Amino acid sequence: MVDVLSPLKTKTKAGRHGAAGDTGVALGTRSIKGLWQLAGWSGFEAAAEPVLKRLGFVDAGTFREARRSESATAWRIAPDKILLETADELGDEQSAELAVLDLGHARTAITLTGPAARELLSQLIAIDVSPAAFRPGEFLQTGIHHIGVLIHCLEVDRFDILVPGTWAESVWEVLFDNALPHGVEVREAA
Amino acid sequence: MKRLETGGRIDRGKPLSARFEGRDLPAFQGDTLASAMLAGGVSLAGRSFKYHRPRGIYSAGVEEPGALVHLREDDRHEPNARATTTEAFDGLVSTAQNAWPSLGFDIGAVNNWVSPFLSAGFYYKTFIGPFKHSTKFWMMCEAFIRKAAGMGRGTYLSDPDHYEKRNAFCDVLVIGAGAAGLSAALAAGRAGAEVLLVEQDFELGGVALSDPAGSEGDSWIASVKAELDGMSNVRILTRTTAFGAYDGGTYGLIERVSDHFKAPENHQVRQRYWLVHAKRAVMATGAIERPLVFGGNDKPGVMLAGAARTYLNRFAVLAGRNVVVTTNNDSAYAVAIDLAKAGATVTLADLRSSISEKLKSAASDAGITLLPGHGVLEAKGGRKVNAAIVVPVDAAGKANGAQKTITADLVAVSGGWAPVVHLWSQLYRKPVYHEDGACFVPQPEAGHQLQSAGTAIAAASLDEVIEQGFERGAEAARNAGASGDSGARPTGFETGPFWQQGMSPVWAIFKADGTPQGKAFVDFQHDVKISDVDQAHLEGYVSVEHLKRYTTAGMATDQGKLSNVNALARMAELRGLSIPDVGTTTFRPPFTPISMGVLVGHETGRHFRPVRLSPIHHWHAENGGVMTEAGAWMRPWYYPQPDEDLRSAYIREAAHVREHVGMIDVSTLGKIAVQGPDAAEFLNRMYVNGWKTLAIGRLRYGAMLREDGFVMDDGATARLGEHDYFMSTTTANAAKVLAFAEHLLQTAWKDLKVHVTTATDQWAAIAVAGPKSRALLSAVADTDLSRDALPNNHFTQAVIGGVKVRIHRMSYSGELAYEIYIPAGYGRHVWEILQAAGKEHNLRPYGTEAMGALRIEKGHIAGPEIEGRTTLKDLGLEGFASSKKPFVGSILRKRPVLEDPARPTLVGLEIEGKTGAKAGSILFPATGETKGHGDGWVSSTTYSPALGKNIALGLLKNGKTRSGETIRVVNFVGNETLSAKVVSHHFFDPEGERQNG
């Protein structure tokens, strides 16, 4: 089995950087099990229902709250689009009513944790990321350094950032440099 | 030494090393540079903008017009720093600016002697008018004028510090942490609102910090601060200036995070730019004391009265021993009394003849010599005030009695106060005139997101200040949705009198004939004298906006803080109008100067713009590839062997492809998934050619137009499945094509069931080209790649090195060639498999320069030809356009001007001689003048290793009929003329035998 090369392979060298003292932010990456886009037209939810059920979801979700099942995570990224992270093969679900697209290599996941993680996000995006406004389970689609990203809040101080692979180094560098005043730890990819 | 033994809010246990002009200053923690300068006996702080007049420390705040200095050294050098707001720090180094050869002896001071010739409008009149048809003289003089006039000098060194941006959201933003702001924050915080309280000073308290240390105000501030500190919903930012107010409750703030250190410590940023989105805001920005206009009112030793009190009570510096205080209002009495109590000999010249008994008594008790109905006609002295000429005045400020000279080393002035209305005015409109306070104030309106409180709206007492602040804070919290109880309003504390009661609106002190005695300034920053205002009036200027621009009063960092009302008052007087009838100017951001660095933030250096990298990028970098920018991408340009330059490398690489096999990373091609049952119809509309017959497993070249009929892009699209297409675009136009397609689907073509999604990041792509490409790929792929199994314009699935890939049979180079599409995470792996297997076949990587040479030899168009001005016909592609269906641009491409047969069309050019043509060169016939736009231009150029000569692509008028003609290729920039023969643009293998082989 050939290993998937992370676009951030050269960046994720374990180490401690920036301000001395407590570590405010830890940056790392994680592998993506598989990423699929389901898209449709009028009647999209009905068209997507069998696939969602198969993955353990009861509905198509909302535009703010991610859905998680045992085998998948779903983000409703548009009225007629859902992004699914799952190891399942969904290519066969393609039909005249449902467009299925493999994006498993199109994104890389940057992990952001730590007590200053929200501060770091507030340095980069013009959306309220305070704990009251951006709660665990919710996600945002926004831009970091002009690059479209999806930010998923997993816990109060833990986030996943899905970034287009070819832009990943630039986004990483912006996150890293902005994190230096907080004290930043880089974690080797899991 | 003017530092008092006791008192002040400085920390005497923490002395600091600070210098001005090489002189050590007795600074302590809690000082500003200005207070340390005064404590060290520095009276001359700088030279004025135009006349190079000596200037001292005039204020204790952001309004400072004179003590502007160079701060720090080397790459942290900073011009125009206000000494009054520069916090003293250990290692502070400052020098004077706008003075040569020294601050004490400044050659530029000669301007002062010729000032009658340098009045308002001097430059316009002298340098523009007399030389009507030429600007040469003006341009020559400009260099000298700019050198003579001006402020500090910047540095060309790179700024070593970092700056940060931060977005913040709150219910209530409170701007200013004086009594009003603290009260507002308290009320809003208690109500449960998310509060952001910002204060430009490094301590909370506002003007209460100018009361003697240990006053009631201290405990009041401490108590409120303690309560605010205990609220988790209140955030306090000191050293933070709100510089701009914008629509939608958006405010710009600058936090000076590390400016109070010699250099930022522990990776901290120097400054932080906050973009605050507030549901409601309270402006508690206070007021700035106004000068009085009299002769010599700009000399070192003349100071705002409130500033003298600040230096005394906050910094324990007695700015003068013999003080003349002159005022038109009550507020200066507290100043005079405190100075007298500190040991100064004080004379108080009050322009008003009627003064309350309470004030008289207080002055008398303090040992002050009170002169009712008197004003200072002139401050005497050279580089430092040594006396004040005091004169009895009438109600209009005109002398009506004998002058007397009073020895003085400090003249403290108060002409009333000007509320700081800048943010409100930026957001809404011009402020309105407040008769009692003789000042401009915001006009509150219900529903305004920003409300004002305290002396910012001319509150007349401390109780009013606290009441207004508290009510505005509670109200803002309610309007923002907070429902808690704000509780009881804090009670006030003892402080000095405010300015409004019994104020006399006298702005200037004149001689009996109505003229000032000596030079009397209304704007210290730009050296605008009262005579300049008079002159503007004489020359017919009536609008305050014109007055401002003609005289420059209120410009630069002053932004009207000190000069506005006095200039307006003079204009009103001259026009026989009231001040409100004359009106005021509009305020614009920023309230105080801000550094460009903080606006830029991190978006500099490697973050100037994001960079896009291929999944195989690091292989190129590790293996000697020289990278070049291609839009946002970094691409391998060429792979030099030892001692090779670009030219020899790309010629070698291109020749190698023709002879053996080469591979290039083409992951940068735009890739768009087109999905849905109407995908073929969508492609039919997007492209000029037809798509309904394209079978699964095949691919087709297509060109698309803009709506105006010009060519927009081209590329190949493969049909992967029944409803599934894979479109490729040029590297440069990928985003534009995707956005255009999305736009059409969301607006004009909502009837189509199609989704377009970028797949550029999903796929790495490698082009393998050359006569041995099939042999190479056959060695690594598990599929039959023979000509019959995979003809041109077909694709197949395959496995290479354990990775599922898609192999497209297509050629950009004119050689037998393939494009391999690989899931991005395996891109480098497959590249390395090919690299290893390629040794047998003499495989070499090639870069974009060789790719360009190969495609020019083949006559393929690219970005230089698809540049927005060319049509299908111009590029010889009209045969692709279907006549059986409409497509984007199908109507407008038929415009007569685009059908003109004389339009430049694509041709090949064989350049004569050893020198290649430069892209952009203009094409002319072999004889005749070489003027104007010529017959066309060179679009792409290269040396062709296959042909052994320099060739080019160009667009030439009537190009199709000029084959064989010799023309001239003129490079006007390089002053070079070449000859070229017009040929077909298909230089190499025009029949396509190699690519179809």
Structure report:
- The complex is a heterodimer of chains A (190) and B (997).
- Chain A is of the alpha+beta class.
- In chain A, 16% of the residues lie in helices and 34% in strands.
- Chain A has helices at residues 44-54, 117-124, 168-179, and strands at 15-17, 25-30, 35-39, 67-68, 72-78, 81-86, 99-102, 107-113, 139-144, 147-155, 158-164, 184-186.
- A 7-stranded mixed beta sheet of chain A has the order 1-12-2-8-11-10-9.
- In chain A, a hairpin with a 2-residue loop joins β9 (139-144) and β10.
- The model of chain A has no long low-confidence stretch (mean pLDDT 96).
- Chain B is built from 24 helices and 48 strands.
- Chain B is an alpha+beta fold and 997 residues long.
- Chain B is elongated, with a radius of gyration of 38 Å.
- The mean pLDDT of chain B is 95.
- At the A-B interface, β7, α2 and α3 of A face β8, β29, β37 and α22 of B.
Secondary structure blueprint with pairings:
The complex is a heterodimer of chains A (190) and B (997).
Chain A: E1 15-17, E2 25-30, E3 35-39, H1 44-54, E4 67-68, E5 72-78, E6 81-86, E7 99-102, E8 107-113, H2 117-124, E9 139-144, E10 147-155, E11 158-164, H3 168-179, E12 184-186
Parallel strand pairs in A: 2-12
Antiparallel strand pairs in A: 1-12, 2-8, 3-6, 3-7, 4-5, 5-6, 8-11, 9-10, 10-11
Chain B: E1 11-20, E2 23-29, H1 33-39, E3 46-47, E4 54-55, E5 68-71, E6 78-82, E7 92-96, H2 110-113, H3 122-128, H4 136-148, E8 163-175, H5 179-190, E9 195-198, H6 216-229, E10 234-237, E11 240-246, E12 250-255, E13 271-283, E14 287-289, E15 302-304, H7 305-313, E16 322-327, H8 332-341, E17 345-350, H9 357-365, E18 369-372, E19 374-381, E20 385-392, E21 404-407, E22 410-414, E23 417-419, H10 422-427, E24 432-434, E25 439-441, E26 450-452, H11 462-479, E27 521-523, E28 528-529, H12 530-538, H13 544-551, H14 564-575, H15 579-582, H16 596-600, E29 612-613, H17 617-622, E30 626-630, E31 633-638, H18 646-659, E32 661-665, E33 670-675, H19 679-686, E34 699-705, E35 711-721, E36 724-729, H20 734-746, E37 755-758, E38 763-769, H21 773-780, E39 795-800, E40 803-809, E41 817-823, H22 827-837, E42 843-845, H23 848-858, H24 896-899, E43 904-911, E44 922-925, E45 936-944, E46 949-957, E47 966-971, E48 976-983
Parallel strand pairs in B: 1-7, 8-9, 8-13, 9-10, 13-26, 15-22, 16-17, 16-22, 17-18, 29-31, 32-42
Antiparallel strand pairs in B: 1-2, 3-4, 5-6, 5-7, 11-12, 12-13, 14-23, 19-20, 20-21, 24-25, 27-28, 30-31, 32-38, 33-36, 33-37, 34-35, 35-36, 38-41, 39-40, 40-41, 43-46, 43-48, 44-45, 44-47, 45-46, 47-48
